[in-house]
């Protein structure tokens, strides 16, 4: 029976399309890592990963070990990279055959200790070097120490070298991005000269895939592109947003001029106004920033702006000029009315909307 009421509809055919489109941008032999952290950007990590595994993706990436464990518990056998492992989860990482990103000398020491304690040999790790994002990462000045520790310990083996582009979606920052790519190549050369084996190299995110072929190296990482967004509207014709957030009208009401809607009387009607109450709120991921008319929903093909403050479990929209009734469907975002459109009106980004959709919103998968 199809889900009714509030739900996030996820189109797995669109996911497949996006995967093949992004793969088409790669040279033969370049591996593809699917980023499914934060519940696959809000779309449901297990189902998304299962479908991508069926499509023979090469790798998965998550932020934390607990996310990787959930995938392992649900039949994901492909390699999983943990982008931001914590020291207290390293034993679990090893137990579940999860590959950690080593982003500091201290983390390298901690993982070597954990691997030795569990009598591991050549356990695969990925070294992350900071090339300009200035988030996490090993600094170039520490490369000799890292090489020494890796080559003198048989418990670990470098499976990958990685970094992260800071502004690959902004071609005004082309010089900076190219400087990051150059520094990554310098680090790679030093590691290749020091290690007696080959390893994967990956620096590109979705925008790197689309804008910087020179940064594809031997593997790329894609998150937002898989879900239908390319960080630039020029890619909208090629990528399909895979999710549609839908709800229903719970009630319609009229107020007279001078009356208010929602908390703190932040909306006061200037004239007689009809509004609808939608069964969705900031407890579901529709943040309060979308109040005060900063977002529009689609009802029977017409746009209705938000009124007043978004409540925890519901929000109100102006339907004075829309023919609609309780029980009618409401589209918050979709392929046509995209999460990017919604985000830009509120001064944020599509990532924040998608990852913010809470688990109490049921996911309905369209195959």
Task: Compose a concise summary of this entry.
The chain is of the alpha/beta class and 367 residues long. 29% of the residues lie in helices and 24% in strands.
Question: How is this structure best described in words?
Answer:
With 367 residues, the chain is an alpha/beta fold. It has 2 domains: 12-229, Alpha-Beta Barrel (TIM Barrel), CATH 3.20.20.10; 243-366, Lyase, Ornithine Decarboxylase, Chain A, domain 1, CATH 2.40.37. Helices cover 29% and strands 24% of the residues. Strands 1, 10, 13, 14, 15, 16, 17 and 18 form an 8-stranded mixed sheet that branches. It has an 8-stranded parallel sheet with strand order 8-7-6-5-4-3-2-9. The longest helix is centred in the middle third of the chain and has 21 residues, at 174-194. It is elongated, with a radius of gyration of 24 Å. It starts with 6 loop residues before the first strand and ends with a strand.
Which CATH C-level class of the largest domain is it? Alpha Beta
User: Which superfamily, in CATH terms, is the homologous superfamily of the largest domain?
Assistant: Alanine racemase
Number of discrete helical segments: 11
> How many distinct beta strands?
18
Low-pLDDT residue intervals, each spanning 5 or more residues: none
């Amino acid at each position: 029976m199809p889900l009714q009421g509030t739900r996030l509809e996820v189109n797995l055919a669109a996911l497949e399309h996006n995967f093949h489109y992004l793969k088409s941008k790669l040279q033969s032999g370049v591996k593809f890592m699917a980023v499914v952290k934060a519940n696959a950007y809000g779309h449901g990590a297990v189902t998304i990963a299962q479908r991508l595994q069926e499509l023979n993706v090469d790798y998965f990436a998550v932020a934390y070990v607990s996310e990787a464990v959930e995938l392992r518990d649900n039949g994901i056998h492909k390699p999983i990279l943990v982008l931001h492992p914590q020291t207290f989860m390293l034993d679990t990482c090893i137990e579940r055959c999860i590959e950690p990103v080593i982003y500091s000398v201290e983390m390298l020491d901690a993982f070597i200790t954990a691997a030795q304690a569990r009598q591991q040999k050549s356990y695969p790790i990925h070294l992350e070097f900071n090339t300009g994002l200035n988030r996490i990462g090993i600094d170039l000045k520490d490369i000799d120490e890292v090489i020494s520790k890796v080559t003198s310990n048989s418990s670990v083996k470098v499976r990958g070298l990685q970094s992260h582009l800071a502004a690959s979606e902004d071609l005004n920052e082309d010089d900076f991005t190219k400087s990051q790519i150059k520094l990554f190549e310098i680090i790679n050369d030093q590691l290749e000269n020091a290690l007696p084996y080959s390893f994967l190299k990956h620096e590109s995110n979705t925008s790197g895939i689309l804008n910087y072929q020179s940064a594809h190296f031997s593997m790329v990482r894609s998150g937002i592109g898989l879900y239908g967004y390319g960080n630039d509207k020029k890619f909208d014709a090629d990528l399909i947003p895979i999710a549609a957030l839908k709800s229903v009208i719970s009630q319609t009401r009229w107020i007279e001029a001078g009356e208010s809607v929602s908390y703190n009387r932040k909306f006061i009607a200037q004239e007689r106004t009809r509004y609808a109450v939608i069964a969705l709120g900031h407890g579901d991921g529709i943040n309060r920033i979308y109040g005060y008319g900063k977002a529009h929903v689609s009802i029977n093909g017409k746009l209705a702006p938000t009124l007043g403050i978004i409540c925890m479990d519901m929000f109100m929209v102006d339907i004075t000029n829309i023919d609609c009734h309780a029980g009618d469907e409401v589209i918050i975002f979709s392929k046509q009315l995209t999460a990017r459109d919604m985000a830009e009106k509120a001064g944020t980004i599509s990532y924040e909307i998608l990852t913010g959709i809470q688990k109490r919103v049921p996911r309905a998968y369209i195959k």
